[in-house]
Amino acid sequence: MEITKEELIRNLQRVRENIEKACQRAGRSLSSVKLLGATKTKPSAVLRWAYEEGLKVFGENRVQEFLKKWEELKDLPDIEWHFIGRLQSNKVKYIIDKVSLIHSVDRPSLVDELQKRATKKGVKEVDILVEVNVGGEETKGGVKPEETSELFGYILKKAPALRIKGLMTIPPYREDPEEVRPYFAKLRELRDKLAEEFNLELPELSMGMSHDYTVAIEEGATIVRVGSAIFGERE
Fold first, then answer.
1. Burial classification of residue 224, based on how many CB atoms lie within 10 Å of its CB (0-12 exposed, 13-18 middle, 19 or more buried)
2. Across-strand partners of 100?
3. pLDDT of residue 234
4. Which residues of 77-106 are buried (b: 16+ CB within 10 A; e: fewer)?
5. Contact present, 213 and 184 (Cβ < 8 Å)
6. What is the DSSP letter of 233?
7. Which end of the chain offers a freer environment for a tag, N or C, measured as fewer CB atoms within 10 Å?
8. Averaged pLDDT, 162-169
9. Count of other CB atoms within 10 angstroms of residue 53
């Protein structure tokens, strides 16, 4: 069932209100949280509605689907694209100069490919987040928490074009969002530790999705990736 424009507007308003309340509870300013629309399987027309309602940041999981939407929506002046899915090395060349932030950097081979393609395309700076598998789940991407420092060192040494902006995670799914809180706290603590270890500014924590984004904000999320709560269930 495709969503109607009215439903989308209502959903977006509800999400924004929830974000505001979570910020108040955490004693944070509303401007410290960026709402990203996670738009996998959603048609460009629906993204356009969201854009008209002031949502400017969109995240895609699949390169082919992203390229199609990028083409269809490139008339929108200040639209911002993030890549939030697992990124295969052979797809890097298609997105390197089209996205503002890549959320899913988790291995040296991907780092090498990003650096190589940035050099080829003349892209001076590529903003990235390092994805951490805080729940240790086999099925998910992300570097193990205890190996994150090693990957940071590798990026800083081998990939001058890459700018590490922070960390991202997809924690284990739990019915009760409160049960996910420790994972969000763990990512924040890891970020603070790495910032100190490498003397880096790491402003971004990309964590929290449709059912747990308010808890993520309370634990320090700066980017929440919200899909079904805005756009309805996936096809």
1. buried
2. none
3. 78
4. eebebbbbbebeeebbeebbeebebbbbbb
5. no
6. S
7. N
8. 98
9. 15
pTM for this entry: 0.97
Identify the DSSP state of 132. Answer: B
* Alpha-carbon dihedral 25, 29, 31, 33, rounded to 10 degrees: -40
Using CA atoms, how far residue 111 sits from 22, 125, 186, 215, in Å, is: 35, 13, 24, 31
pLDDT tens, residue by residue, 11-50:
999 999 999 999 999 999 999 999 999 999 999 999 999 9
Q: Between the CA of residue 227 and those of 35, 124, 162, what are the distances in Å?
A: 10, 31, 27
CB 152, CB 164: distance < 8 Å: yes
pLDDT digits (tens, 9 = 90+) for 65-79: 999 999 999 999 999
Domain that holds residue 207: 5-231
Q: 3-state DSSP call for residue 136?
A: coil
Please state the domain count of the chain: 1
List phi, psi (to 5°) of 96: -55, -35
Query: Residue for token digits 């209100």?
Result: 17
CB distance 69 to 23 below 8 Å: no
42: burial class by Cβ within 10 Å (0-12, 13-18, 19+)? buried
Alpha helices for 27-163 (secondary structure H): 44-52, 63-72, 92-95, 108-121, 148-158
Gap between the Cα atoms of 41 and 21, Å rounded: 29
Count CB atoms within 10 A of the CB of residue 204. 21
CATH of the domain at 18: 3.20.20.10
At position 227, the amino acid (one-letter code) is G
